[in-house]
Amino acid sequence: TKAQLETEVSKYMSYVLRHAPDAAGLTLDGEGWVAFEELEKALTSKYDVSRAEIIAIIENNPKKRFTLADNRIRANQGHSVEVDLALTAVEPPADLFHGTSAIAWHSIEREGLKKMQRHHVHLSADVETAKIVALRRKGGHVILRVDAARMFSEGHSFFVSDIGVWLTESVPVQYLSPD
Ligand code: HQG
């Protein structure tokens, strides 16, 4: 169906713009941008989609995963390839949240939150969003409260992405508690 095609194209765009530009013959610049026309070529050679449909996929993406500006496109976050999104450090809200699996919690309670494959640990401003993130995982879920106020006062830097995801390098255990 059309919806399935849109999801597939969107997932492939995330894959290419975050992790494997080479796979589509693309090269990202230092801040993760690529000419829209180049991406369009890669997508139309692989999928039966038009330029207008690609633009609609970008604009209708529920999580605003991509920014299209000045004929360039980039993923807003979640890269594994080296990019500098030019984020500025800002003071976080007092509490932030992280939704994860009960299994992961066994190691998180010993090691703290690590950035794993990504460039930062991703945190949510509210419990509802953290729950949605957790539900991507199988089995039981845990919502963690992060004492962001104390982390910030003790020298940890925070960044906020275009779409309101809070980012930090790591969260040591002393700042974590199950919500
Ligand atoms: C876990 C999606 C064991 C961490 C979502 C998470 C979000 C540990 C997983 C965004 C650990 C990494 C981010 C440790 C962390 N031991 N497990 N010490 N430290 N973990 O996907 O936060 O679709 O990289 O709890 O909606 O789940 O990409 O991070 O379960 O906004 O746009 O390791 O990704 O958005 O998983 O999700 P991820 P996340 P997109």
Automatic annotation (TrEMBL):
Keywords: NAD, Transferase
Keyword Transferase: yes
InterPro entries documented for this protein: Ptrans_KptA/Tpt1 (IPR002745), RNA_2'-PTrans_C (IPR042081), RNA_2'-PTrans_KptA (IPR022928), RNA_2'-PTrans_N (IPR042080)
Keyword Transferase applies: yes
SUPFAM superfamilies: ADP-ribosylation
Source organism superkingdom: Bacteria
GO molecular function: transferase activity
Pfam families: PTS_2-RNA (PF01885)
Enzyme Commission number(s): 2.7.1.-
Family: Belongs to the KptA/TPT1 family.
Biological function: Removes the 2'-phosphate from RNA via an intermediate in which the phosphate is ADP-ribosylated by NAD followed by a presumed transesterification to release the RNA and generate ADP-ribose 1''-2''-cyclic phosphate (APPR>P). May function as an ADP-ribosylase.
Family annotation (HAMAP family): KptA
Protein name as annotated: Probable RNA 2'-phosphotransferase
